[in-house]
Amino acid sequence: MNDDLIQREQLSALVDGETSASQMQAVLAYAESDEGQQSWRMYHLIGDVLRSPELAHHSQHDVLPGVRALMAREPRPGQAVSGLADGLPLGQLEQVVPPSGDHASERLVGNGAPVVAFPVRSAANASVFRWKMAAGVASVAAVAAIGWSVMLGSPGQQPPVQLAGLGAPQASALTAAAPAAPGNAGASELPLGEQAQSSSVVAVAGPYGQSVMLRDPRLDELLASHPQYSSAPNLQMPASFLRNANFASMRPAQRP
Amino acid sequence: MTPPDFPTPSADSDLALVERANAGDTRAFELLVIKYQRRIERLVGRMVRDQDQVQDVTQETFIRAYRALHQFRGEAKFYTWLYRIAVNTAKKALQDIKRSPVLTESALHTGDDEDETSRFGQELTTEETPETVLAAQEIAQAVNAAMEALPEDLRQAVTLREIEGLSYEEIATAMNCPIGTVRSRIFRAREAISARVKPLLERQSGKRW
């Protein structure tokens, strides 16, 4: 068996992953030769067609010449910037758009000797990441704006006014600006300065124009001390729609 | 998309070729291109329908793989890694086509010069000429015919290896023969098939193998 046959048999074993470690480098070196490459191509074609006959169609086009031409213009995979390592003075830094157009490589020109630099390539999802960052900042700003407005309160609302705790002058200022309720016609006939000191029930206009009944806290205290005279539960406002259930007042026949 | 389940490829030889390519041996990467170009082209052809685009995308796939070769650590199979690059490259190509449709020669191919109907905007389809279809059939028929003509032991050995994906050791057990004999039979089977297919390829391509 001549050397060529031996090498082709070793190449055949390499195709099947059955080459020993000691023979690997020698077989690979033969595979990279022109003859070895032809045998490599043929062995793989046979295997592909046996496994899937449709792959025979894809044997019509050889992409290797095009790939070879493009590889010639590419730096070695993972090659670092050699100009800096050699201490060459940095010349004019120029941006060079590579043939493929999807990344930029920096070519450092020093002493007239172009040095192929490591391709500086932005991440594939760099633009997407920037949009995500912008969206995140916008979301935080929106939440902050909403929170701030909630803390300050809506400008359309007015804090509830409680006249009960006010002194006479303040109460008189408010009541003077509001129309009196029909039930308090008597109070409205009094002079303004005396209205605040007379009846403890005064009607003022609410923010929407309705009459709001304000109660004197002294009335609440009086009612609290005498619950038997209160026809309503101890509420801020008379709950006329509620009936008092009093077992003591029911006749024996009505008890369940 | 997951890669199809092919017989176990020579992972060690793929990794060895990657290491040589990373060391600057471009011929080592060319061997990987030769080995996987048909499968990658078939995969791309299923995603990109224009034949001209298929070749461009296939080339782009290998170039992208070459650029990123130093990142391949051998944790996964090389074909799995290459498969993902091909899918991503094809998807990018489809997006580019949608943004700016490009008329290729295969898309413009029409038999009526006076036809004013514009084909621009129509979906690009794969142009399989009768010649290429016939050529592919001839190759497949030649391989099958060569297999049929093989002695039984050679045909059985190469079938167990190429189609069943058994290792040399497993084939030796199945055929009750030494591993060296298995290695020799498979090699002789390949040589016999090559002898019938090579002239056909030379005739089709017009150049000598």
Percent strand of chain A? 5-15%
Q: Report the largest inter-chain contact.
A: A-B, 54 and 71 residues
| Strand line-up in the sheet with most strands of chain A | 1-2-3
Instruction: Give the structural class of chain A.
Output: mainly alpha
Shape of chain A: rod-shaped
* CA(first)-CA(last) distance of chain B: 36 Å
> How many beta-strand elements of chain B?
0
Stretches of chain B where pLDDT falls below 50 for ≥5 residues? 5-9, 110-125
Question: Given the structure, what is the number of helices of chain A?
Answer: 10
Largest sheet of chain A, if any? 3 strands, antiparallel
Can you give the helix content of chain B as a percent range?
Answer: 55-70%
Overall pLDDT confidence of chain A: 66
Helical/strand content category of chain B: mainly alpha
- The ordered H/E elements of chain A are HHHHHEEEHHHHEEH
Would you give an account of this structure?
Chain B: Belongs to the sigma-70 factor family. ECF subfamily. The complex is a heterodimer of chains A (256) and B (209). Chain A is 43% helix and 11% strand. Chain A is mostly helical and 256 residues long. In chain A, the strands form 2 sheets. A 3-stranded antiparallel β-sheet of chain A has the order 1-2-3, with no helix packed on it. Chain B has 209 residues and is mainly alpha-helical. Helix content of chain B is 68%, strand content 0%. In chain B, helix 1 (11-22) packs across helix 2, helix 2 crosses helix 4 and helix 8 packs across helix 9. Chain B starts with 10 loop residues before the first helix and ends with a helix. Residues 5-9 and 110-125 of chain B have low confidence and may be disordered. At the A-B interface, helix 1, helix 2, helix 3 and helix 4 of A face helix 1, helix 2, helix 3, helix 6 and helix 7 of B.
Give the SSE map.
The complex is a heterodimer of chains A (256) and B (209).
Chain A: H1 3-15, H2 21-31, H3 34-51, H4 64-72, H5 82-85, E1 93-96, E2 104-110, E3 113-120, H6 126-152, H7 168-177, H8 185-189, H9 192-195, E4 202-205, E5 211-214, H10 217-225
Antiparallel strand pairs in A: 1-2, 2-3, 4-5
Helix pairs in contact in A: 1-2, 1-3
Chain B: H1 11-22, H2 26-47, H3 51-67, H4 78-99, H5 105-108, H6 130-149, H7 152-162, H8 168-175, H9 179-205
Helix pairs in contact in B: 1-2, 2-3, 2-4, 3-4, 6-9, 7-9, 8-9
Keywords (chain B): DNA-binding, Sigma factor, Transcription, Transcription regulation
Domain RNA polymerase sigma-70 region (chain B): 32-99
Protein name (chain B): RNA polymerase sigma factor
